[in-house]
Predict the structure.
Amino acid sequence: MKEKLFNPAKLHNIMQLDLIKEIVSNIIGKVGEQIVNILYKKKNVNEFLIAKKLNLTINQTRNLLYRLSDKGLVHFIRKKDSKKGGWYTYFWTLNEKKALELLKNQKTSKIIELQQELEKRKGERYYFCPASALEYNEEQALENNFISPETGEVLQLKNNKQEVDRLEIEISKIKLLVEEVSVELSQIEKKGEKDKERRLKAEVKKKETERKEKREKLKKLRAKEAKKVSKNKVKKVSKKSKKK
């Protein structure tokens, strides 16, 4: 039995797919995962095919896709369908780069928010009511004379270490995720640059071929004209000889 070889490209696609699913699901819910599965690494997918796979009406499907389009996560082209009475049919494509950029921005904002909370936990005192587990910052505790307004019990000073540890772990996890997204974006940008380079080379080659064809045509045309001029000269010489 042959041992299965490790496929880094396949693993890379799975990681990218999971990241994109997260941001799309944040916008339109769980159905976003299905939409990503349908559109990932494909171009111009017929909306009726998407609706069929989602088991939704075409209007429901369009509504979901429009919401993603508003965020720049998908784009479409439309074509008139004579079989459907001349109505337009939309063909959708997922914008992987835009999805990852949006995810990175959201996670970066979350890190800033958690870091601010972490600084508060490290620098401020918090109090809690043992009976209700409600928490109060120092200003709120002072306003209530360190008495819980809900239960009337004396508030106790809270040990912030557990909350500080939780925030630090969460920040570390999100930072790792942002690094993963950055790597994915870098890969997409490199691929885009290579694709652009290939397109430019193809355009240069096409122009060179067109110029060569034009030169060949011009060369043939000049040769034809030269031959015609030569024939005319021979005819004139022949006529002069006959007159003599």
